[in-house]
Amino acid sequence: MNQPRTRQIIFALVGITLVVSISASYFAIALLFFLWMNRIFHKPKGERWTPSPLNLPILFYILWGIVACASNGFSNPREIYSGHDAFLLFFLFSQGIEADELTSITRWFIFASVFVGFIGILQFFSQANFQPTPRTFDIPAYMQAWPLRLVHFFSLRNGRAVGSRSHPLTYAECFIPALFILLTWLLFMHLQRNKSSWKIVVAGGGGLATLLLGILFSQSRGVWLGVGLGLVINSLLLPKKLKYVGLVGLILFGSLLWFASPQIRTRAQSIFSMTSGSAADQQSSATRFSLWKAALQEIKQKPLFGNGLKEVELRVSTPPEAVGKTWSETHNSFLQVALDRGLVGLGLFLWILIVALGTILRTPKPWRTALLASFAAFMVAGLTESWIGDKEVAMIFWALLGAAEHLRRQGNRDEKIKN
């Protein structure tokens, strides 16, 4: 197999596995890493490493994570690596690939996202539901003779779509970049007025609808809010003649939340009211508030170094549970960082985010809009979910920032050539 063909396979694997499978993505990323190392080894003399404004805050964040673990006795040394390996995606996407290779990975990532979104739609309409606690299935008559593994794959989890993931939240969060990149690309095609590409635009519109329905059927309230804010940002940054598109998209998404089904409508209402939604929705909201309160108390006890990576144990109880449950996640990415690494770690994390925002704002149009909308959606979703500790989501987020840095540098090079 020739080298260009091998590289194309690697890029396809990276794009597909990032959204389909966490275990498979490790294999694909390892191949991409070895490709990067080979390029560094054969780099022409005189060609230098291109520095990034994100390198320093990321380095300090990693080092402080090691210090936080050391201050807690290295009780879980494996987490020193596991808690930081997702940052490799930032360096691979910002330094390890070329512009056409980033395009190839992004294209495969969007294809895979649409495919997994379609699986979630099939799960929603299958009428099959899996309840993890206790492990029971509600199986419709037409599925009775199916193999159990196949039934499990096409079943909802507690009434929520999960696609190829194990949890509806990670399923929905992984769609965020694909949604806004695809939306930006479709609007760019419209501005170009390329009449010969109408079939591609129709296919892209179908993909966009599939992603929105996948997010809708996941019933992930934090992601719904994040997508809503992303659509607002998208509409504000569009050229004047296209601003209505973002507003129409926001109205359409809100209409889907309201009219899709009574279950989804009441869950949407529970975002704004503790007494709305099902009993499970109300309990979920109450649990989050209890976790946030317990997390703040824990931070007060260990403000400097935190508990160490993956050492958080929050015991809370909410009705109707008589016995408390121990939680390792706070359902808030910022509180999670503060608990894991202390307030110093939280400050370093905020430093990364501020520099990342500046990087995104210096990327060329039209991708600046997609990156900024995606970044905002992740931030909002992080207020109710600890995606910073979910490896499959964290890898996509750091890859997104790596792509932003890649595009910023590419834009700077193009500007120098013009001048």
Quick take:
This protein is mainly alpha-helical and 419 residues long. The chain has 17 helices and five strands.
Structure, described:
The strands form 2 sheets. A 3-stranded mixed beta sheet has the order 2-1-3. The protein has 419 residues and is mainly alpha-helical. The longest helix is centred in the C-terminal third of the chain and has 29 residues, at 333-361. The protein contains 17 helices and 5 strands. The protein has one domain. It is 68% helix and 3% strand. The model has no long low-confidence stretch (mean pLDDT 85).
Task: Pick out its properties.
two-stranded antiparallel sheet; 419 residues
Task: Give the H and E element order.
Answer: HHHHHHEEHEHHHHHHHEEHHH
Task: Describe the strand arrangement of the main beta sheet, using strand numbers.
Answer: 2-1-3
Q: What integer is the average pLDDT?
A: 85
Low-confidence stretches: none
**Morphology call:** globular
Structural class: mainly alpha
Count of beta strands: 5
Helix content: 55-70%
Number of helices: 17
Beta-strand content bin: under 5%
Alpha carbon gap, first and last residue: 41 Å
**Largest beta-sheet characterization:** 3 strands, mixed
Oligomer, anyone? single chain
What is the alpha-carbon Rg in Å?
Answer: 22 Å
The total tally of domains equals: 1
Topology:
Layout: H1 3-20, H2 22-41, H3 55-71, H4 78-82, H5 88-95, H6 99-126, E1 129-131, E2 136-138, H7 148-153, E3 156-157, H8 168-173, H9 176-192, H10 198-218, H11 221-237, H12 243-259, H13 262-269, H14 279-301, E4 314-316, E5 325-327, H15 333-361, H16 367-381, H17 391-418
Parallel strand pairs: 1-3
Antiparallel strand pairs: 1-2, 4-5
